[in-house]
Design brief:
With 233 residues, this protein is an all-alpha fold. 69% of the residues lie in helices and 0% in strands. Helix 1 (3-33) runs antiparallel to helix 3 and helix 6 runs antiparallel to helix 7.
């Protein structure tokens, strides 16, 4: 792996760790605010990736998808939420499940805004670098090796897209992903009991949809809007 690709992989992995830590910390903080202090007591309201580390979801899978040029994704050790202290269990359970994906979407919006400002400040070369950084979102497209010449644009593009990808990934409606947890709250009790039976296979289903790449297709409008904004400034 040449220096440019090593740089690209390293930056993406660090951004992934930040995005993952932010979503888990947000879940833990939301649960505490709603009456469940368990995650807080275990130190999970933290941006320290070590607090949320999972060998498969935080290291092995992200490293593998980066090696194959796929959008980086994964998961951390879930913040323990028992729900026993929730004042309104149905509402509070859904809000806690939404906290992670909404945090990732917020970070994606912040990075997108910062990217537009940065492109406006750097002119034509910055615009070209930002557009080039958007290309490798599709496997084996674009020359990642040249992106190290404009690390700011590359970093902001990847911060936006990694967070957007994680937000959609975790909203896939299969437990134990956040979307599946929300579905369990929304379904009638007898349906929810049957649906919960797929929990042992939920992560595998989610990974398959992310790699195929169903999640990337869902995000194409976001990537398109981001490209248009970059070209307009």
């Amino acid at each position: 792996m040449d220096a440019g690709r090593l740089f690209a992989a390293g930056v993406q992995y660090l951004l992934f760790l930040l995005a993952l830590s932010a979503r888990e910390a947000a879940r833990a903080w939301t649960a505490e605010r709603l009456g469940d202090p368990m995650a807080r007591s275990l130190g999970r309201v933290s941006l320290n990736p070590g607090r949320h580390f999972d060998l498969l979801g935080t290291l092995l899978l992200p490293s593998l998808v980066l090696a194959f040029g796929l959008p980086v994704f994964g998961w951390g050790r879930p913040a323990p939420v028992t729900g026993e202290g929730f004042r309104r269990p149905w509402r509070d359970g859904i809000l806690t499940a939404l906290a992670g994906p909404m945090t990732n979407f917020l970070l994606a919006l912040v990075a997108s805004f910062a990217l537009v400002v940065a492109v406006a400040m750097h002119g034509a070369e910055g615009r070209q670098a930002a557009l080039q950084a958007l290309l490798p979102l599709l496997p084996n497209s674009g020359d990642v090796g040249k992106l190290s010449s404009y690390p700011l644009m590359f970093t902001l593009v990847r911060m936006a897209t990694i967070n957007a990808f994680l937000g959609v990934f975790f909203l896939i409606p299969v437990p134990p992903l956040d979307g599946g947890v929300i579905a369990l709250y929304l379904l009638p009790p007898d349906w929810a009991e049957k649906f919960a039976a797929i929990r042992p296979y939920g992560i595998m289903i989610g990974v398959a949809l992310a790699v195929l790449p169903v999640v990337t297709l869902v995000l194409l409008p976001f990537y398109g809007i981001l490209s248009v904004l970059v070209q307009l400034v």
